[in-house]
Design a protein that fits this description.
Blueprint lengths: L4 H18 L4 E2 L5 E7 L4 H17 L3 E7 L5 H10 L6 E5 L4 H5 L12 H6 L2 H4 L3 E2 L2 E2 L2 E5 L2 E6 H7 L12 H10 L15 H8 L8 E3 L5 E3 L3 H15 L17 H5 L5 E5 L3 H7 L6 E5 L9 E3 L2 E5 L6 H11 L2 H11 L2 E2 L2 H4 L11 H7 L3 E3 L8 H18 L4 H17 L4
Parallel strand pairs: 2-3, 2-4, 13-16
Antiparallel strand pairs: 1-2, 4-14, 5-6, 7-14, 7-15, 8-11, 8-12, 9-10
Length: 430
């Protein structure tokens, strides 16, 4: 059928209106119903299923406020969100991680949740977790899932070696960990494989146990980098395991966590330091009969303390329905629902009530070990540092990679982290 110019213009106008109704923050439909867009970064099948089920349950009980599930990706979330913020297309409810929020919070893209969240939710999540989403005087996300770094170990190799098995109550110290990896090495096996393709967060977060802080905020509010004794203990241990003891595989330093699993299953590495959620991949991919266990990361002068950047839920500043969005966040993070999300992601909930659930305290798959570490998790050192992303990518990542590979020494590493790093951070603090 031939369309007249008038008909074409009419159809075009209708299309524009339909697109306008689908873009930007949630809006009211013609029937008066509010639609909120919830962008989730869940990617594991169990996690996606749990998130989608909870959205359906909300929609069934709230006919006037419909939530639309939008699938996002961890690989591109920062750039995607920045584009959507600047283009006025941001989802109402935003799933992200706390270490990605600082620039968005200071840039005015995220709503201050201080007066939006119910008292129940505020009191259920510990203050140490709220610190990860507090920037200036505002709260710009709700921290709801967290994971410690743990040692995933070949239980058979550990048992045969006769080494002491650490527990959260009696962990290895960092010097003891180094000695153990030497004992476990030999006959084609390394005591440990460090997957350090992204070395910065692992190094900084584990260094909290040895008193590391790295970023120091002065009375004027400006941050400077000081790579002191406590900051050097963990990278020195890794370096010495690789270069001196030959108890750590040099070939995995440029690998991601998943890349180490085939060698781990084949007995090439007795242990691999990984995030707690990697247990799901190990359970799914391990060959039949492979016996593995979860051990706490080594302890230092500050015990088992380690930095963490929880997964978060935020609300876009441009959302016209912040109150309704906050109500959905509160629903999503009811204790029983938080447990469902944690089990789906093989992570730990931040909520005190959810963390008490018996399902998170079983010995199977190391849940009990992880739950025991929750009280030791602290805000990651870089949490509120503006310019951290550039410092990490342009300064810290290449410097640490060169140090771990033996290309530079500790003095040069310190110089680059401090001198070059402070030049980068200074541009963000004028």
């Amino acid at each position: 059928m031939t369309r007249t110019p008038t008909r074409i213009l009419t159809l075009f106008a209708c299309a524009v209106l339909l697109l306008a109704g689908c873009s930007g923050g949630g809006d009211g439909a013609d029937d008066g119903r509010i639609t909120l867009r919830f962008q989730s970064l869940a990617w594991q099948d169990e996690s996606v299923k749990a998130n989608r089920e909870l959205v359906r349950e909300w929609n069934a009980g709230h006919p006037d406020v419909r939530v639309e599930y939008v699938q996002g990706s961890w690989d591109s979330v920062h750039d995607q969100l920045l584009t959507s913020f600047e283009g006025g297309e941001a989802p109402d409810i935003i799933h992200d991680a706390s270490d990605d929020l600082a620039d968005f919070a200071y840039g005015g893209y995220l709503a201050d949740l201080t007066g939006l969240l119910p008292a129940r939710l505020k009191s259920d999540i510990p203050e140490r977790s709220w610190e990860t989403v507090t920037f200036g005087d505002g709260v710009y996300g709700v921290p709801f899932l967290q994971e410690p770094r743990v040692l995933i170990a070949n239980a058979t190799l550990l048992k045969e070696s006769g080494v002491r098995i650490p527990t959260p109550e009696h962990p290895w110290t960092w010097p003891e960990f180094r000695r153990v990896t030497k004992e476990l090495s030999g006959d084609g096996t390394y005591g440990v494989a460090w997957p350090l393709k992204e070395p910065v967060s692992a190094t900084l977060n584990l260094s909290l146990s040895t008193g590391g802080q790295l970023f120091h905020r002065g009375a004027d509010g400006k941050v400077t980098v000081r790579f002191e004794t406590g900051d050097q203990a963990v990278p020195r241990t890794v370096h010495d395991q690789v270069d001196t003891d030959h108890s750590a595989s040099p070939t995995t330093l440029g690998s991601g966590g998943s890349d180490t699993l085939p060698g781990f299953f084949a007995g090439k590495y007795a242990m691999v330091p990984l995030g707690f959620s990697y247990r799901q991949q190990i359970e799914q991919q391990a060959p039949e009969g492979f016996d593995w266990q979860v051990l706490p990361a080594p302890a230092g002068a500050d015990g088992l303390a380690q930095g963490v950047s929880p997964q978060t839920l935020s609300i876009a500043e441009d959302s016209p329905h912040k109150k309704e969005a906050a109500a959905f966040v509160d629903f999503l993070l009811q204790p029983d629902n938080m447990v469902r999300l944690a089990l789906g992601d093989w992570m730990l909930p931040t909520g005190v009530q959810a963390l008490k659930d018996p399902a998170l305290h079983t010995d199977e798959h190391g849940w009990a070990t992880g739950a025991a570490l929750a009280e030791h998790l602290r805000s990651a050192p870089a949490q509120s540092v503006r310019g951290y992303a550039e410092w990490k990518d342009k300064v810290a990542t290449p410097a640490l990679q060169e140090y771990y590979s033996g290309a530079i020494g500790m003095d040069e590493l310190r110089h680059r982290l401090e001198e070059d790093g402070n030049l980068v951070l200074a541009r963000y603090q004028r």
